[in-house]
Amino acid sequence: MQISARHSDQTTIFDVSGDIDLANSPEVRKALLREVREKRTPRVVLNLSNVRYIDSSGVASLVEGLKASRDLNLRFILFGLSPSAREVLQLSRLLKIFEVYDNEDQALSS
Amino acid sequence: MAQRDTKDASLVSNEGFLLKLELHSDPQLLCVVRGALERLTEVFGFSAPDRRSVTRAVDEALTNIMRHCYNGRTDQPIEVYCTRVKPRSPDHADGLEILLCDQGPAIDPAKLRGRRLDEIKPGGLGLHFIRQSMDTVEYRRVGSTNQFRLVKYLQPPA
Q: Domain range holding A41?
């Protein structure tokens, strides 16, 4: 799994590629929480279009990012969900809780 | 075909054995097991959604073993047996049984219930994913071994 960040004024986009599972979900969690809690970035966007698989520990990392954002009145957005990622969010009844878009343009113009 | 090690494997069917994986409890190996299950379920004849379901369930079960049975140690043994099993009834199709075995402490069955989903909080989702994905989910302690048995049945032909 690889994660990199692109920054613009009020937005950070995390580009994640590979699978998010127990081996690397802590890295995702750490990156998200640092961006939200320390940097207080107004809008944090997670590009999941190259993430084929995400497990429950990955979902937990996303939930932590979302909760931290809400606590600080910041935005937390996902885009590019694979069928597998969409399924796990549906199974955990979280798909409607997150702000989700199909692609980057939609996410950034929201 | 190589001889199967049936030590402490009282739930393993003697017919229809397909695949055995032995691994250490290292999370880096989860993707390897997912790859094997993806191909096995494809060869077995599952639909794409069911292939994802089975792969997800096994992955989550392994994650639970690594985190909770072995408390994050990466050098402990896990065995995964994959077996074709007979249909539940004459009108149904065969199933794929996956038996996950670990040498960790016995599990309190009360902890296998999973949590309610009406709270938005991280954690506690693995068991839910497993139960949603598989037709049979059973736990048994046999000697010093935890056995977690999962079965998914093929959709019967239309």
A: 2-109
* φ and ψ at residue A49, rounded to 5 degrees: -70, -15
pLDDT at B125: 86
The string of pLDDT tens digits covering residues B75-97 is 999 999 999 999 888 888 999 99
For residue B59, the enclosing domain spans 17-114+123-153
- Domain tally, chain A: 1
Nearest chain A alpha carbon to B74: A23
Short-list B144, B123, B5, B2, CA closest to B76? B144
B98 domain-assigned: yes
Cβ-defined contact of A92 to B117 (cutoff 8 Å): yes
DSSP letter at A39? T
CB pair distance less than 8 Å for B125 and A59: yes
CATH code where residue A31 lies: 3.30.750.24
Can you give the CATH number for the domain in which B91 is found?
Answer: 3.30.565.10
- CB of A90 within 8 Å of a chain B CB? The answer is no
User: Greatest CA separation found in chain B?
Assistant: 49
The first and second tokens of residue A83, run together, are 């069928």
Amino acid at A72: L
Q: What is the ipTM of this complex?
A: 0.89
